Amino acid sequence: MSDSSHSIPIGKLLRADNSQFVAGCRVRELETPAFGSLVRASLADDTDVYGLITNISINDDGLVRQLVSGVSIPGEYTADNRYNRNLPVEIHVLTIGYQSEGQLRHQLPPRPPLSLDQLFLCGSDEVARFTSLGAGYLRHILRLTDQPIEELLVAHLSQARRVQDSLGNPEWYEDACQRLIVLLRDDYMRLARVLDALSELE
Amino acid sequence: MEPQANLSPENPPIGFVTGGGLEANLQVKLTVPAQTVQEGAFVVMDSGNWRFYGLVTDLQLAAVDPNYASQLNSQRFSPRLARYLNQNTLYTNLAVMPALMLEKGPDPASPEYPAWAQNRPEKVKPITVKTVPDHHAPVKLANAGDIAEIFGKEDGKTIFRVGETREQGHAVCLDLEKFVQRSSGIFGTTGSGKSFLARMILAGLIHANNASTLIFDMHNEYGPSSTSSDTGQPVSGLKQQFQSRVRLVGLGAGTDFGALHADFQLEIAHKDITPEDILQLTQTLNLKETTAATLDALQTSFGENWFTEFMNMRGKAVEEDEEGRRRPAPDSVEAWANEAGVHVGAAESLRSKLSRLMNRPYLVNSPASNGLAEIIDSLQAGRHVILSFGRFDSELDYLLVTNLITRKIRDSWEAATNQYHKDKKVEPRPLVVVVEEAHKLLNREMASQTIFSTIAREMRKYYVTLLIIDQRPSQIYDEVMSQLGTRISGALGDEDDINAVLSGLAGRNALRGMLAKLQPKEEVLMLGWGVPMPIPIRSRRYDDIFWQELHKDGQPKLATTADYNKFLGLGDDDTD
């Protein structure tokens, strides 16, 4: 199991399959996870499953609908609904690798995490460790069809680049960009959108 | 040469094979900047136990998707991303014409190597390509060892360096032994450096001394030293450099060689002119169809003196007999025609037309010496002859003299060869007849009339070949062009000329563009039977350094007394 000293618990698993999973958290816990962040679900068998936050969704319920349709909502009602509601905030995670028996791999795990497994936000040291293995895991992101991958890439690469740059490894970002170009060069429109987005990071 | 002898460091790969075949060229994806490679580059590809040799015939810009090429990426994306994008999506494709392959065997460190080494032939030679390298076979620019493997290594004698590869400057040689075995040609437009190239090849031939050369020097530029019209620099002549090994012959008296003196003047005896020589001037003299019959009658009447006798006849001379009747004078053409049963008009017309030859000062009744025999003796004795036409540079002079001398040569060499086949004693000395402005002798109309097309087609087995120097190869008869073994061409602009130089060769389409884009005065394309594969080269400069390098080995190695005698020009007369 990964050293979790710098990891921050952000929720518990709701549902999962091999390639993605969804965790739930309370609204008050929502200040730390961010779109594109690297997260880890720790399984009972000492396997860690890594993923990127691809979406954070807040679902409505009957009470919210009633409140929204009201003329004015007192502040305490809003606060009560946000912090004491029964429905969790859903954090959607794309699986991009796992660690088993101390070996980190940029492949899908043999088994998905189980419900109520704890989800952690990875700290800088874990981001550094995961990304230092190379940029091959970016191929998992390109699988997404229902998400704006260019925005996800910008969000994730800016995090990873900051960590790698701080370690004196600016080549990592260059390698990652080249890897992306190689992976996406057969799809001009998609690559152009990604490079447009990445150009804003420069 | 053994493949293992290639100790030159290998060049790094420049790309890899992605497709293609023997017919349609191999496709190679370039992994280095396009400017690293030029059209005509000599490349090698290793695949399995074989090394393949090929020639880059085209470079084409390509992209993974046309959109990457059509948009200016640097304006749309950040400079760094645009650079990465261009590196990974834009590339260059090479079209490589595979030419030769050489079995190099398995890796010497592999367990298969000893078995292969035991069974391989003693001398592994490159063979014409018969298969293709695998997909993704690495492609490298040929190194000096590869080029020496194919074109030979300069030996100061018959393996003669004619230039260097354009990219890396590796020496490219011509095997002069092979070069003289078949007729060959040097082509190029005016100003393409053709004359310097010809001088250089001739210097190599004379230095190698494996064949005699007879140079018909129409413009008096090969024997004496001269001055380059382009640079104003002095240009060494062959006579000056090779001294007694080259005999300088002036046509008629008074040929000016500057500071040099002619070894002798060529005067041609009337009796050496045969009806065949006249017939070969049919077009130039505008002779009629009746000429052959008239000439035949003249020879019947007067034997070998026919020309003198005919020239002594008077045209329309008449005299009165005792009874006052007008009749042809006894020394008139008409009188002879009547006696010989020849049409009078035809005979008088021929006499009139041949009067153009009568006033050629080099045609004399009794020359002081037998210049024709001396030329042939010199050539058979291993010397080289430059016949300068001096002031007699008209087409008529050129056609008459070259035909006449060459016919004598054909007779001599045929006799010598037949003798050799009988007694196996003295093998005839190979002879190269160098013909400038060859289209004047070998154009479609003339080819059938001159002796040169016969030499190009048939004289190889009699040890005589042609070296044609011309700027309009398209004007030369196709049948002659197709017989040329080695072709060395400078820049050619005209499409017809380019097609003519490539006639009868495989891979013509691929070579066409290469020939059109040669750098004038610097680059030439060598191709044909005499070279293992076509290759464009930066030609060697014909300057003082050239002569220093040529002479640095001193005189050619002389193995036997016979060689030595030949070198001194003594020869032996058994071949006469």
For this entry, give a set of tags.
heterodimer, A: 202 residues, alpha+beta, disordered N terminus, B: alpha/beta, Rossmann fold, 3 domains, 12-stranded mixed beta sheet, 6-stranded antiparallel beta barrel, 34% helix, 23% strand, disordered C terminus
Query: Beta-sheet strand percentage of chain B?
Result: 15-25%
Overall body shape of chain B: elongated
Write down the overall mean pLDDT of chain B: 86
Domain unit count of chain B: 3
Described by strand count, sense and barrel closure, the largest sheet of chain A is: 6 strands, antiparallel, barrel
Radius of gyration of chain B: 29 Å
Largest sheet of chain B: 12 strands, mixed
Task: Tell me the β content of chain A.
Answer: 15-25%
What's the helix and strand layout?
The complex is a heterodimer of chains A (202) and B (576).
Chain A: E1 8-16, E2 20-25, E3 38-42, E4 48-57, H1 62-69, H2 75-84, E5 89-100, E6 103-105, E7 118-121, H3 124-131, H4 138-141, H5 149-166, H6 171-184, H7 188-199
Antiparallel strand pairs in A: 1-2, 1-7, 2-5, 3-4, 3-7, 4-5, 5-6
Helix pairs in contact in A: 3-5, 5-6, 5-7
Chain B: E1 13-20, E2 26-30, E3 42-47, E4 50-63, H1 66-70, H2 73-76, H3 79-89, E5 90-103, H4 113-119, E6 127-128, E7 138-141, H5 144-151, E8 159-164, E9 171-175, H6 176-179, E10 184-187, H7 194-208, E11 212-217, E12 226-227, E13 234-235, H8 238-242, E14 246-251, E15 264-266, E16 268-269, H9 275-279, H10 282-285, H11 291-302, H12 306-312, E17 318-320, E18 326-328, H13 333-340, H14 344-358, E19 363-364, H15 371-380, E20 384-388, H16 395-423, E21 431-436, H17 439-442, H18 452-458, E22 464-470, H19 478-481, E23 486-489, H20 495-501, H21 508-516, E24 523-528, E25 535-539, H22 544-551, H23 561-568
Parallel strand pairs in B: 10-22, 10-23, 11-20, 11-21, 14-15, 14-20, 16-19, 21-22
Antiparallel strand pairs in B: 1-2, 1-7, 2-5, 3-4, 3-7, 4-5, 5-6, 8-9, 8-25, 12-13, 17-18, 23-24, 24-25
